[in-house]
Design brief:
This protein is an alpha/beta fold. The chain has 2 domains: 76 residues, no CATH class; 34 residues, no CATH class. It contains 4 helices and 5 strands, in the order E-E-E-H-E-H-H-E-H. The strands form 2 sheets. It has a 3-stranded parallel sheet, covered by helices on one side. The radius of gyration is 15 Å and the shape is globular. The two termini are 26 Å apart.
Length: 114
């Protein structure tokens, strides 16, 4: 399976005082809601969202509250990456890149050694 969409939803929007940029509303929807709706409604087969577990849960709640079908929810993956127990930004990036390579090459994600 190929990754068709990666949405970057991480960060604290520290350069935008008083509001998280992803939660800014345009035409009655937040930027994040608009991007998610567009990606999922286009039928993109795999939508990975780079976000914290907390934010990923909030995004999933939004999708369920807006009656997104189960078939569509199965194409949504967040937080992006493999479980490497990553702590630093570099380790998180490696986790996400590892998932991308695994999916691109139809890998299993299993440990190679015994």
């Amino acid at each position: 399976m190929k990754i068709s969409g990666i949405i970057l939803a991480a960060g604290s929007s520290s350069r935008m005082p008083n509001q998280n940029k992803l939660m800014a509303k345009i035409n009655g929807k937040t930027i994040l809601e608009s991007v998610l709706d567009t990606a999922l409604n286009m039928g993109i087969p795999y939508v990975a969202v780079v976000a914290s577990r907390k934010k990923a849960g909030l995004i999933m709640d939004y999708l369920k509250e807006n009656d997104v079908q189960e078939e569509t929810l199965q194409r949504f993956h967040s937080p992006a990456g493999l479980d490497l127990n990553a702590k630093s930004a570099e380790e998180i990036a490696l986790s996400i890149l590892s998932e991308i390579v695994m999916l691109k090459n139809s890998g299993s994600g299993k440990i190679l050694g015994s």
